[in-house]
Specification:
95 residues; alpha+beta; Alpha-Beta Plaits
Length: 95
């Protein structure tokens, strides 16, 4: 069975390179939890909805891009139903 977990975030467009460096630095940590692939999808054409949309979901500002990140694992990634809290709690992740 294949497992996925994902998150949507608003990232300042000017900080794209810094965000990508952070993602590259934390990738080994995700691997220790069983992730086999990580994808960062930057919104190029994310329309605003009439009732709800990604911008509203993350309270994006005009200078921010919507990023959808997802992890793929061949086996269940060790996690809790509260999301990716374990990455923040793992001291190897740094800041």
């Amino acid at each position: 069975m294949t497992y996925f977990t994902g998150a949507v975030a608003a990232v300042p467009t000017a900080n794209k390179a810094a965000y990508q460096q952070h993602v590259a630095a934390v990738w080994p940590l995700f691997q220790t939890y069983g992730a086999s692939r990580m994808v960062e999808s930057w919104g190029a054409d994310v329309p605003k909805g009439k009732v709800t949309d990604f911008q509203g979901a993350v309270q994006a500002k005009e200078d921010e891009s919507i990023v959808f990140s997802w992890l793929h694992a061949r086996h269940a990634v060790r996690r809790q139903p509260h999301g990716l809290w374990w990455v923040r709690a793992d001291l190897r992740g740094g800041r």
